[in-house]
Amino acid sequence: MKRTTIFLPDDLHDQLRRDAFRAGISMAELFRLRLGRSNTPPSGDRRGRDAILKVAGICRRPILTSGIDESLYGI
């Protein structure tokens, strides 16, 4: 087993601490359980979900912001 350190926002840390306490397990065990739920690795292709990545490569014209609202928001 490897040890790692992560930084969490205070509110998320507090929620995880409460969840671990209610379950009667350590926070480390809670992390392992929750992280182990998904056996499929992330796809790495976020273009369909990330609006900024949808406009990657659109800057072929002199005016960089031309068409950005349409590309980002469909308007």
If you had to describe this structure to a student in words, what would you say it looks like?
The protein has 75 residues and is an all-alpha fold. It has 2 domains: 8-40; 42-75, no CATH class. The protein is built from 4 helices and no strands. The longest helix has 14 residues, at 10-23. It is elongated, with a radius of gyration of 20 Å.
What topology emerges from the helices and strands here?
Elements lengths: L9 H14 L3 H10 L14 H4 L13 H6 L2
Provide a quick synopsis of the model:
The N and C termini lie far apart (50 Å). The protein has 75 residues and is mostly helical.
How many helices in DSSP terms? 4
Helix content: 40-55%
Largest sheet: none
N→C terminal distance: 50 Å
Hey, roughly how much beta strand do the residues contain?
under 5%
Order of helices and strands: HHHH
Structural class: mainly alpha
Which regions contain 5 or more consecutive residues with pLDDT less than 50? none
Q: Give the CA-based shape.
A: elongated
The number of strands is 0
Over the alpha carbons, how many angstroms does the gyration radius reach?
20 Å
User: How confident overall, as mean pLDDT?
Assistant: 75
Total domains: 2
Give descriptors for this structure.
75 residues, mainly alpha, 2 domains, 4 helices, elongated
